[in-house]
Amino acid sequence: MATLDSLLVPGAVDLHGTAKDWRAAIHLAGSLLEEAGTITADYTEAMVHSVEETGPYIVVAPGFAFAHARPSEAVKETSLSWVRLDKPVEFGHDSNDPVDLVVAFAARNDSEHLQAMKQLAKLLATKRDELNRVDSEEELRAVLKAAASSKKRASSAAPAPPARRRNPPPGHSQARRAPCVRRWHSGGHGRGGRSRSGSAGRAVRP
Fold first, then answer.
1. Radius of gyration of the chain (CA)
2. Nearest-angstrom CA–CA distance, 128 and 201
3. CA angle at residue 203 from 197 to 206, to 5 degrees?
4. In angstroms, rounded to a whole number, what is the distance separating the alpha carbons of residues 63 and 70?
5. End-to-end Cα, the chain, rounded Å
6. Residue 157: partners with Cβ closer than 8 Å, 6 or more residues away
7. Which residue, among 31, 48, 36, has the nearest Cα to 8 in the 3D structure?
8. 12, 137 in Cβ contact below 8 A?
């Protein structure tokens, strides 16, 4: 699975962005991917149009907008850009406005979209303060790599599930245990044992 660090296009980072409104913020994030050649301008317009049609659903956390559109031919390569605004803008969200962090993501299929969304959700939940403090692309990548490494360590530390015991063939275990049960109930204890009937060394047959 691709990490956020590997998806972040080199140079597609603006940590002191300016935008007059939410449309300009999305255009800024999209333009970074356009310049890198991973999307066309059609994809940027699709990201704006998506919000115009369905509302500010992309504002998925306080101060954070995950700008994206449906996979299409406008996506040349799965990629991500990162914009932090000096002055937050309003997207019209009831509880998560204003937004100062806009991440534009272009995916070639729905699976890549979901994977990136999960990683971003965990990143924002655990590293938001660090993300707010980074002042260069190198520092940003260091935070992304640290988050990916901690996830790998957590996965490797998880206990392995217990091995499932295979059930013996029908009648197998019963057949092997049956003689012992019969000897125990008949009073036999090996050679020299005495049965309840008083005969030495002989087990009573069932």
1. 32
2. 80
3. 95
4. 23
5. 63
6. none
7. 36
8. no
Q: Which residues have a Cβ under 8 Å from the Cβ of 152 and sit 6 or more positions away? A: none
Q: Which of 16, 27, 49, 68 is catalytic?
A: 68
Give dist(CA 59, CA 8) in Å, integer: 20
Long-range Cβ contacts of 42-46 (<8 Å, 24+ apart) = 42/72, 42/74, 43/69, 43/72, 43/74, 43/75, 43/106, 44/104, 46/70, 46/72, 46/74
Non-local (6+) Cβ contacts of 189 within 8 A are 183
Q: Are 81 and 115 in contact (CB under 8 A)?
A: no
pLDDT by position in tens, the chain (length 206) = 789 999 999 999 999 999 999 999 999 999 999 999 999 999 999 999 999 999 999 999 999 999 999 999 999 999 999 999 999 999 999 999 999 999 999 999 888 888 888 999 999 999 999 999 999 999 999 999 998 886 555 444 445 555 565 665 555 544 444 444 444 344 444 444 444 444 444 444 54
Q: Is 68 a catalytic residue?
A: yes
Edge-to-edge, what's the strand order for the sheet holding 99-106? 8-17, 79-89, 99-106, 64-67
Whole-prediction pTM value? Answer: 0.72
Q: Are 67 and 102 in contact (CB under 8 A)?
A: yes
